[in-house]
Write a structure and sequence with these properties.
The protein is of the alpha+beta class and about 475 residues long. It has 4 domains: about 1-70; about 100-170; about 170-255, no CATH class; about 275-455, no CATH class. The chain has 15 helices and 5 strands. The chain has helices at about 1-20, 25-85, 85-120, 125-140, 145-170, 225-235, 250-255, 260-265, 270-295, 300-310, 315-325, 330-340, 345-365, 365-400, 405-455; strands at about 170-180, 185-190, 195-200, 205-210, 220. Strands 1-2-3-4-5 form a 5-stranded antiparallel β-sheet. Strand 3 and strand 4 (about 205-210) form a beta hairpin. Helix 3 (about 85-120) packs antiparallel against helix 4 and helix 13 runs antiparallel to helix 15 (about 405-455). The N and C termini lie far apart (about 145 Å).
Length: about 475
């Protein structure tokens, strides 16, 4: 605004100069105009400031009112849309509901009934199994209505819930089962939670029920005390039942226990050569332990005593002292005294020859233990391979649907490897121990011979000492 006023003043001045007016008059005139313009400008500013606040308040109120009107409009449009839904939308919703009902009645109910039928004990299959099988046949009928299917499903669900409450509290019902001889007998089933008992009231046979792959429940015998408690409970003479908290795992573990000879018998024909080597190496090891550990070593000073007697020309006393020493050092010292008149080199050779004759006697039969340690694992591995081949042949004939025979066959095949290692490890340790003991005996004999030859080397040929 000020720039505009300045330009107007300059133009006015220039115009005045062009018309020849006095410059001072022009300036005075324009200053007065400028003052009037500034006064008017201030007046306009005051008016604008007075009207700005009311206009801002009115604008805010208008916006709030617009927001409310827009919300009411959305509600009215939603209500209008819900009143004018098309028939296609209703059909889509109906189809979605039908799919939900079909999923519940066929998929969920089918899975529930399959699990329910699988959880039924072999004694309950006669009572509750027919209802589930009837429902499965009903689903295959194309003319049955969905309402009938749902009603039948709800009836079985109610029945299953009643069964759960009954089983948790325990129940007893009549039925048939195979006894320990495979004969179908009548009796009473006693069900308490996950435990199922059976008692043949006629023969007084009782025990747990083995629910295997057989179409009929089979009686699994227990100890006499447990069987008497179950039979008394079935007759109503007692209210006590034997309970296995491990759900038959303890019974199965007890059945896995076997004796030593039963364990060996499962290993097959290759157990016999392994046991032959085991017995042979045991006898050899016992014999060698008695032979080697019974050897007594002579006094380390005997070499100096013999040398002193020989230097004193007392060969008889030296021979007596040599004969008093334990074997095998005795023969070596006796030969050394007998050849004491010979040169020292010959005496040394004589004692070395005696040591060489002793070494085979000490090492005799040790190779039997070494061969056993090397052969036993190989025989065990051979038995394992043979057993696994037989297991796979049985799988080829009967199939691999049940893994228990496969696992049982492999475990029995590994028995030979177990026996081979059990034999080889002690045999290896015994062989190392006996070999070290033989080496120690020979080393002490060699030390004794060296001490004797060194003492004799200080003797002059005339029999006197050179010291």
């Amino acid at each position: 605004m000020r720039k505009l006023i300045g330009m107007i003043a300059i133009l006015a001045i220039c115009g005045s100069a062009a018309n020849g007016q006095n410059f001072e008059q022009a300036v005075s005139e324009h200053e007065s105009r400028l003052g009037l313009a500034i006064q008017r400008l201030n007046t306009l500013r005051d008016e604008i400031a007075d009207k700005q606040i009311p206009l801002a308040q009115r604008l805010s109120e208008t916006r709030e009112e617009t927001k409310k009107l827009r919300g009411e409009f959305e509600k009215q449009r939603a209500a209008q849309d819900s009143k004018h839904l098309q028939l296609g939308d209703l059909e889509k919703r109906l189809n979605a509901k039908r799919k939900e009902v079909d999923y519940i009645s066929r998929t969920l109910m089918g899975e529930y009934f399959a699990n329910y039928e699988a959880e039924l004990s072999s004694g309950e299959q006669v009572i509750f199994g027919e209802a589930v099988r009837g429902f499965n046949l009903l689903q295959e009928d194309a003319d049955v209505s969905e309402l009938e299917t749902v009603e039948k499903s709800l009836a079985i669900v109610s029945e299953s819930l009643d069964r759960i409450n009954t089983v948790l509290g325990g129940k007893m019902y009549d039925g048939e089962a195979l006894d320990s001889n495979g004969v179908l007998v009548s009796g009473k089933f006693i069900q308490a939670g996950p435990l199922l008992y059976f008692s043949d009231l006629a023969n007084q046979d009782a025990g747990l029920v083995d629910e295997g792959l057989s179409l009929q429940p089979r009686l699994k015998r227990l100890d006499k005390n447990s069987e008497s408690l179950i039979a008394a409970f079935a007759r109503g003479e007692s209210n006590t039942l034997p309970v296995d908290p491990s759900l038959e795992n303890a019974v199965l573990l007890q059945q896995t226990k076997e004796g030593f000879f039963e364990h060996l018998k499962k290993g097959g024909v290759w157990v016999y050569p392994i046991m032959f080597f085991a017995i042979l190496s045991t006898l050899v090891a016992a014999y060698k332990f008695v032979q080697i550990f019974a050897i007594r070593q002579p006094d380390p000073l005997v070499a100096h005593q013999l040398s002193r007697l020989l230097r004193a020309a007392e060969k008889g006393k030296a021979m007596t002292l040599a004969n008093e020493q334990p074997q095998p050092a005795k023969d070596m010292l006796v030969n050394a005294v007998e050849h004491s008149d010979e040169p020292v080199e010959l005496v040394e050779e004589v004692m070395y020859e005696s040591m060489l004759s002793v070494q085979p006697k000490l090492e005799r039969f040790l190779n039997v233990i070494a061969v056993t340690a090397a052969t036993a694992p190989l025989l065990g591995l051979l038995g394992t391979v043979t057993g696994i081949i037989k297991t796979f042949k049985l799988m080829n004939v009967f199939g691999a649907g049940d893994p228990k025979p496969l696992i049982s066959g492999i475990s029995e095949a590994l028995i030979t490897t177990e026996l081979g290692l059990v034999l080889a490890i002690p045999a290896l340790i015994v062989h190392a121990l006996l070999s070290r003991k033989v080496a120690g005996v020979l080393a002490r004999m060699e030390k004794l011979s060296v001490a004797l030859t060194n003492s004799m080397s200080r003797r002059t040929p005339g029999g006197s000492s050179d010291v």
